């Protein structure tokens, strides 16, 4: 019989690894090229896990407003698509997501995720109010699915710089997917937005090492070989959970 | 604000709908064509939910054998691919799946799912022992991911007829994905295999109406409009659960 079980366990005595930008990109490339994971598949796994993380951090019964509204702000690339999937699952979990997706990706895979949300009658905002009080009043929280580790904050263009300026002022909690938008992957980020919840995907990025809020790790699908190769030292997930609090 | 919440709830007072073959196919076509879900995405969602169902029905600590072995038998089409994804997630949940996949699909999407399992060192059997005692001794249970509702039992070819004959004789429990292989979607199936657990996907098929074993419904992603259009009257899922016991 298959005897590989005990040696296949990741080591847990070593400290959790926080990834550089290059390492995060290398792992994703290896997943797509060598392990033949699909982009659509990964985005679905990640978005689903993020929705579960948000439901854990902000249970329906804990929300202050009469309606369980959530504003999901989606960026132009993969992080934005993870936000779309997250919004769709939040809808299934009885939340009322509203999406702000100012620049839509031209990729078919990304467009498909957009159509899924549109066809499920999830409303899309045509602009983000600059009056932050309107956001504070209308939503229980904001999901930040704007920029992932692939984006250098120095290259950030409008409308994202303006959106992040608005998000720095909102009083309702922010949950960031993979990493807080606008932060340097490896830097010190005292100037950026200040999310209450962070859901790191695959493994946390270096910038998350000093994150003071509620921090989840999500995406329980990384092959054990890859975990070992990059010495990720991931914590143990419980039962069939797809995320774990760090 | 979005006021659609209460009216978007599916009705739960009407009885759960059991689908005909035509209805099951129509819902899937609508998901793929109109809602722009991807095949890869659906198979990932379903396989993941099936693995969770199996872990619920057969928790690691409940398994009789020293190693948490599971034999996953995969058919040539979509049901087989759901089995591949299920096996991969079972591996993440610390089970030791072994796959028997005698006829591999030529579709790229399906091949990708195969590579993912191979690269995760999940063993593939080159043949199924005809001596059922070998199966009873080696595995804790069998996952039947052979044939879905699209296959007419009358068209069943080898090696599947022989495999089902073997599975009719095994003494360890069988968990069937979507429907028990070899059963008529809408028929009375006293002659077929006799699974202990059934994990229906999207909505149960007509043949499941009199299923006497443990019956889960999985795949909590069906747009509410589609649920209403086909009058599915799905039961309520709890919290963020992706499956519910019927």
UniProtKB/TrEMBL annotation, chains A, B:
It comes from the Eukaryota. Gene3D superfamilies: YjeF N-terminal domain. PROSITE patterns: YJEF_N (PS51385). InterPro entries: YjeF_N_dom, YjeF_N_dom_sf, YJEFN_prot_NAXE-like. PANTHER family: NAD(P)H-HYDRATE EPIMERASE (PTHR13232), YJEF N-TERMINAL DOMAIN-CONTAINING PROTEIN 3 (PTHR13232:SF12). This is ApoA-I-binding protein 2. SUPFAM superfamilies: YjeF N-terminal domain-like. One of its GO terms (cellular component) is mitochondrion. NCBIfam families: yjeF_nterm. Residues 24-234 form the YjeF N-terminal domain. GO terms for molecular function: NAD(P)HX epimerase activity. The lineage of its organism: Eukaryota, Metazoa, Chordata, Craniata, Vertebrata.
């Amino acid at each position: 019989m298959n005897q590989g079980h005990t040696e296949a366990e990741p080591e847990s005595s070593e400290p959790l690894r926080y990834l550089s930008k290059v390492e995060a990109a290398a792992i994703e490339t290896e997943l797509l090229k060598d392990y033949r994971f699909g982009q659509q598949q990964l985005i679905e796994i990640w978005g689903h896990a993020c929705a579960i993380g948000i439901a854990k951090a902000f249970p329906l019964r804990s929300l202050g407003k009469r309606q369980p509204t959530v504003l999901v702000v989606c960026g132009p690339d993969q992080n934005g698509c993870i936000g779309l999937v997250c919004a769709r699952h939040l809808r299934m979990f009885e939340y009322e997501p509203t999406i702000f997706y100012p620049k839509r990706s031209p990729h078919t895979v990304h467009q498909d995720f957009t159509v899924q949300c549109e066809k499920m009658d999830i409303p899309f905002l045509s602009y983000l109010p600059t009056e932050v009080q309107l956001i504070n009043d209308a939503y229980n929280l904001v999901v930040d699915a704007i920029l992932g580790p692939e984006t250098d904050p120095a290259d950030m263009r409008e409308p994202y710089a303006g959106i992040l300026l608005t998000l720095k002022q909102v009083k309702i909690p922010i949950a960031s997917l993979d990493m807080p938008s606008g932060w340097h992957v490896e830097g010190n980020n005292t100037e950026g937005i200040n999310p209450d919840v962070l859901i790191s995907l695959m493994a946390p990025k270096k910038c998350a090492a000093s994150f003071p809020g509620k921090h989840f790790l999500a995406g329980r699908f990384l092959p054990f070989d890859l975990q070992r190769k990059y010495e990720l030292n991931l914590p143990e997930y419980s039962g069939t959970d797809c995320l774990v609090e760090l």
